[in-house]
Amino acid sequence: METALTALQQAYLLGRSDRWPLGGVAMHDFREYHARQLDVPRLETRLTELVQHYPALRTCINVQRGTQHVRPEVTLHLDRHDLRALDGEVAQRQIEQLRARYSHQRHDPSQPLWRIAVLQLAEQQDPTGSPYDTLIFTSFDALILDGQGISTVIARLFDDRPLAPTAAALPPPAVSVAQRQADAAYWRDKLQDVTTPSALPWRAPLANLTSSRYRRATLTLPRDTIKQLGRLGSPHALLRNSLLSALILDTLAHWTTDGELCVGVPVAFPAADGALGNASSFVAVRYSRHGEDFLQRAQALQDDVLGALDHLTFSGVDLARQLLGQSQGGPALPVILTNCLGWETLPAEAPVRFHDGLTQTPQVAIDIRLTLDSEKNLQLCVDYAEQALHGEQVEAMLAALQRRILHSCQRADLAIAPRDFIDLAHYRHNDSEANYAPYPYLAQLAKRLFGAQGGGNALICGEQTLTYRELGQRIATAIANLQNRGVQPGNVVALYLPRSPEQIILSLACALQGVIWVPVDINSPPERTAYLLENCRPTLVVHGGDLETPIGVTPATLLAPTDRAPALPDEQTLVERSASQAASYYLYTSGTTGKPKCVVLNNRATANVVHQTQQRWAVTADDVFISVTPPHHDMSMFDLFGSLCAGATLVLPAPHQEKDAISWNQLVEKHRVTLWCSVPAILEMLLTCKTADSLRSLRLVAQGGDYIKPATVQTLRTLRPDLALFSLGGPTETTIWSIWHPIAPQENGTVPYGRPLPANRYFICHDDGSHCPAGVVGRIHTAGVNLALGYLEQGELKQHDFVTLEGPDGQPLRAFRTGDQGYYRADGNIMFATRVNGYVKIRGVRVSLPEIEDVLRRHPAIQDMVVVDYPSGENNEAALGALYLTRDGTPLPLSEIRAFATGYLPCTHIPTRFIHAEALPLSANGKTDRHRIRADLSHQQTAPALNACAAPPPNAPLARSAEILTIYWQAIGVAPRPEWGEETAFIAMGLKLPHIKQVAERLNDAFGTRLVSSSLLPCKNAREVAALLAS
Question: Rounded to 10 degrees, what is the CA torsion of 777, 781, 785, 787?
Answer without folding.
Answer: 140
